[in-house]
Design goal:
The chain is an alpha/beta fold. Helix content is 37%, strand content 19%.
């Protein structure tokens, strides 16, 4: 049975329309594809700021917040976009960030972190960690509840999320009430069954791209001891991390590393909730947003955030 035959019927046609990107040869072409802002909500204000990134240089962040507020402090989400650590921009997740604000009445901060290979590890993680600290430091301006700051992201953004949770624990803050690393890119070793079996170019993300992206992201440290903040699957100790929600498609190369991460979190005493979606490929809810399974997945992770903010 080939890859497409395993995909859910409602996801197959949208998947076949996705342009295939092969790394590293297609990297610059993919980056030149415009990612315009597509925010549409009439109840969400989107603003842009420049702040000091992890290297002290100016970095763009996008802020999403309710237009109509009362005096009640709001929870916050630091949302880290995906793209294999080598692609992406906050604009690609405008509608998702708007849905967080509309459904959860929260503030969302999304950084335009530096990308590899020009800026290998630790650039992306330090930029996003700097954004977390900025969110905490500016809580009064946005009326943010310091006890309800969460970190989330998908794919490489999920890997950054897991890394930030480790950094915040090990550096003594900022405090994170919840982490949501969706189908996270957290293991550079490519030794799991799923990382080896997903080889079809139509899978959105596949073995060859994963190997190439990790090589670009790790740069000169690729042949040395890889830090846990670069590849969180390498962390020896997951104790003390915040409650966690994650999900992954059964046809995602990150399936097994996600499952392993969930099992290790549970063994470390971390409250964790997990969903596995049969017949679903990497980032399926973004590729086919109108599919019923995509709506279900999105609703489930929004509900997970909602529970985290109300408990």
């Amino acid at each position: 049975m080939n890859f497409l035959d395993k995909v859910l019927d409602e996801l197959r046609e949208p998947l076949e329309s996705v342009p295939i990107v092969k790394l590293p040869e297609d990297l610059q072409t993919a980056r030149q594809m415009p990612i315009p802002s597509d925010g549409q909500s009439e109840t969400v204000r989107i603003t842009e700021r420049t702040i000091a990134g992890g290297d002290g240089q100016q970095m763009l962040i996008k802020i999403y917040e309710p237009i109509h507020k009362d005096d009640e402090p709001l929870p916050a989400v630091l949302w880290n976009h995906g793209g294999g650590y080598v692609l992406g921009h906050p604009n690609s997740d405008d509608r998702l960030c708007e849905s967080f604000v509309d459904n959860l009445k929260c503030v969302v901060v999304s950084p335009d972190y530096r990308l590899a290979p020009e800026h290998p590890y630790p650039a992306a993680v330090e930029d996003c960690y700097a954004s977390l600290k900025w969110t905490k430091d500016n809580y009064m301006e946005f009326n943010i509840d310091l006890k309800r700051i969460s970190v989330a992201g998908g794919s490489a953004g999920g890997g950054i999320t897991a890394a930030i949770a480790l950094l915040a624990r090990d550096r003594g803050g900022p405090d994170i009430c919840f982490q949501m690393p969706l189908y996270p890119m957290i293991d550079d070793r490519n030794i799991t069954s799923s990382s080896l079996e997903i080889i079809d170019y139509q899978a959105v993300w596949f073995k060859a791209n994963n190997i190439a992206a990790w090589k670009m992201y790790l740069g000169e440290i690729g042949n040395k001891k890889i830090p846990q903040y670069a590849a969180p699957a390498r962390a020896d100790n997951l104790e003390g991390l915040p409650p966690t929600y994650t999900c992954v498609g059964q046809l995602d190369p990150f399936r097994d590393e996600t499952i392993n991460y969930v099992a290790r979190l549970a063994s470390a005493g971390v409250d964790v909730e997990f969903k596995l979606y049969p017949g679903c490929f990497h980032a399926f809810e973004h590729i086919a947003p109108d599919a019923e399974i995509s709506k279900q997945a999105k609703n489930e992770y929004i509900n997970a955030l909602s529970k985290a903010f109300t408990t």
